[in-house]
Design goal:
Elements lengths: L4 E4 L6 E4 L5 E5 L4 H4 L3 E5 L3 E3 L6 E4 L6 E6 L5 E6 L5 E5 L5 H5 L2 E5 L10
Length: 120
């Protein structure tokens, strides 16, 4: 049975419980992700539980595209992206996890800037 883990922004105003530690995290080189400096861990929406209500986030949508990027209203940490359509998968910023949890995950590199394919 997987052990839940917690992700938290710097100030603690936004905290999420994840059903399990990520086995893989992804570094994307698209124009937004490389500027954010995030590592994404992907979860089904049902595997993510907000621990703070309401989630005190502001959102950003690049060019009216497909996902909302959420950041803490207080400290500005990027927390997650959520889809704008019927998809149920979301990306959680794995850098919000404790270092030992992040260190145990496999790091993958995605060419989000061009091909959308993994580089490794």
């Amino acid at each position: 049975m997987p052990t839940p883990v917690e992700a938290s922004c710097h100030c603690g105003a936004v905290r999420l419980q994840l059903a399990a530690a990520p086995e893989t995290v992804v570094e994307c080189n698209c124009s937004l992700c490389r500027r954010y400096g995030v590592l994404w861990a992907y979860y089904e929406s049902t595997d993510v539980t907000p621990l703070t209500e309401p989630l005190l986030t502001d959102t950003y949508v690049w060019n009216g595209r497909h996902v909302d990027f959420h950041r803490c209203q207080t400290c500005g940490c990027v927390v997650q992206w959520t889809p704008r359509d019927s998809r149920t998968r979301r990306g959680i910023n794995a850098r919000l996890l404790e270092p030992e949890i992040l260190a145990a995950a496999r790091l993958r590199h995605r060419d989000g800037a061009n091909t959308g394919k993994f580089l490794d």
